[in-house]
Amino acid sequence: MKNLVIIANGGAGGINFPHRRAQGLKKAVSIGYEILKNGGSSLDAVEKAIMILEDTTIFNAGTGSTLGLTGEIEMDASIMTANGDYGAVAAIKNVRYPIQVARLVMEKTDHLLLCGDGALRFARLCGIKYHNPKTREKERMWLRAKKEMKSTYFPKLYKLKELYETVGVVAMDKNGMISVGTSTGGISLHLPGRVGDTPIIGAGTYANKYGGVSATGHGEMIMKTLLAFRTVMYMEKYSAPVAGKMAIEYATRNKCRAGLIGIDRHGRILCVNNTEAMSWCYIKDGNMKSFY
Ligand code: ASP
Which CATH number covers residue 123? Predict the structure, then answer.
């Protein structure tokens, strides 16, 4: 039997409210690990753990997602397994669990990524009900952020305060299968229709036989550097910790503010960031470790 491992992060944008963050992350990895322990697949563990994080309102995913420029919430999510299966949704509104819809795209369609109205229509066809993910807390933050903007004209995203609170989970099951999931409300005050790195294969999420990685941070730069793919490819030759170090150094050299979590084929973990702080938690062989 292979190592059972699950790691989650709650974004690389800092760790205010560390207690709330740690609670959500610990619950997510514990329930994910239970699935692995009971012989379940890493895909099920990742989906379930992400759903818990999507319900944890401190994070920017599912309920509690950040609001875009016009006050609407558009969410991105993706899921991938090491054997190459992939599904994603982009700019989807009014669902509780975007990760669930991403998995449905993977399993029920011939496509990899559905976006906007089409993604929503597909979700409804699959029986996913209406849900308003807006919370008072995130609405207040949005109002404050809007006031701080010099004009309502779209500012350069990288000049905004870092508010990366995307969630990601990577897990390895008893068969050694690695799965990865990532879910986000995007960057605060983004233009309507903006799609970040999270649903883009190889940018926010990637897995193959060498390992799996989920990214958080400045989506536009993560896309340009194809950071998740790059990190996994480093794992062909190097262990997860070394690959993580190389990838985050590459990100820094290319002015990409990011955080990464991942697992290599031997069950080794990476957890790195070049931002102020990242919240994370993992369980490996029954032992839990967390940032707080
Ligand atoms: N990467 C996400 C995005 O650009 C933001 C985040 O990590 O919180 O949409």
Answer: 3.60.20.30
